[in-house]
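## Example pair
The file below holds two records. Each record gives the amino-acid sequence first, followed by its structure token line.
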Amino acid sequence: MDFNVKKLVREAGNAISRYVQLTEEKLGTSDRTEFDVLFENLAELSDNTKNWTEKILRDTEAVLTPNPGNRVEDYLFEKIDKKKPNRLSNLEYLGLDMIEAGNDFGPGTSYGNALIKVGQYEQKLGVVEREFIAAANQCFSTPLQKFLDNEMKTVSKERSILESKRLDLDACKNRVRKARGMLGMPAKDGVSPEYALEEAERDLRVAQSEFDRQQEITKLLLEGVSSSRAGHLRCLHEFVEAQSNYYAKCHELMKELQQDLQSSSSNPQHSSTSNLQSSGQKAKALCDYEAKDSTELSVSADEVVTVLSECSDNPDYVNCEKGTQHGRIPKMYLLFK
């Protein structure tokens, strides 16, 4: 218990000495130990790397999740270690509304049929966008965030310790200077100036040793920050590749949609035909659907079903199969493959 009290008193004394030393430095009444040019350059490089990585990461997150409210929600879910909500993207919401409008206007009309087709492709674009976001997070955002949470936090911690050691060192240097100035004067409080100088020089040697050791540790970590850029470069290449694939898939889908719409416009009969390519076509549920009666089929989000045919009594529904279960599902809940 006595040891703990002494330790607390010593730490409090060190904290006061650091505060006094820092105040005197700011007032210009005390000198400070300067780091060598190499260390200062490494420290500046580390600060630049940290600041730009944070800014790039924020900008990337804004691109991948444009809605600020969603970003805040995702951040809170991460902090409480809960799974992020599986929300639809803006493209998928647009697609759902287009399909619903097309079914309301009538799939047999040119406009209604076109709305349904465009809506289905908007949903496909939404799926491609979701895949791109997942890939970009994995190859770019997550590594950058780990770098900030691990390497940079360690560097910041060790630099803070180094600054404390520097303040301790400079405080010891000041005590030595003051003790030397007291030489030849009478003893104060029973302590001779010679003994006070000897004690101050001993503390200075200890402080210098601790400062040198901490500076070496910090310098090694700062050099590691510089080498981390090679890893960030690889992540950047992977991000560009994921983005390139994303836009290529989007372009391919839009070309298909253009050709499909042009074909429908040139062939009026085609515009009133079924959206289904053939019996046995696969479709994925965009969200949960609960059957309203025994003729319908319940599905969960992302569940894949086999489409058997369109319902003859209601063109807004399709007959589907899921394992041994059969029933009809509204088209607007499905993404046809």
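Second record, same layout:
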Amino acid sequence: MAVPTVKDGAAVWRIARDSGVLDVNSPYCYLLWFRDFARTSVVASQSGDVPVGFVTGFRRPEQPDTLVVWQVAVDRGQRGRGTAGAMLDHLTARLAAGGTLRHLETTISADNAASHRLFRSFARRHAAPLERDLLFPAEFFPDAHDAEFLYRIGPLLR
């Protein structure tokens, strides 16, 4: 697990594109993300430093003790090995060690069962309360998009 660099942007874009479930941002977005939000993100790499998974996140400006997880993805060939959970654990431990981290937030569409399991499991491992509320109804989106539910986990224990 490592802090991403802009060099990881293209590989991460491919992982997002190939996931089949993520809203894929432009390649430029991932380059910018790893320039400006590298400290609140993580990549998992195979030998040879080839990224096989990533978590992108940022701190909420109004609540700097809250990490918002934007995307989590693992390369198809690496799934089922606990990589996503390990990345979340690594990232939150790194941020907690470097300052205040009390909550984790993410949004998940109703049909994304893998993400629901991932974040519920994270909350259990960290003995943290989990709140789930509708954040963005489907009609808020200009295109066909499922409603997004906000998961708020915390307070996280140090």
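Notes on the second record: DSSP finds four helices and six strands in the chain. The chain has a mean pLDDT of 94.
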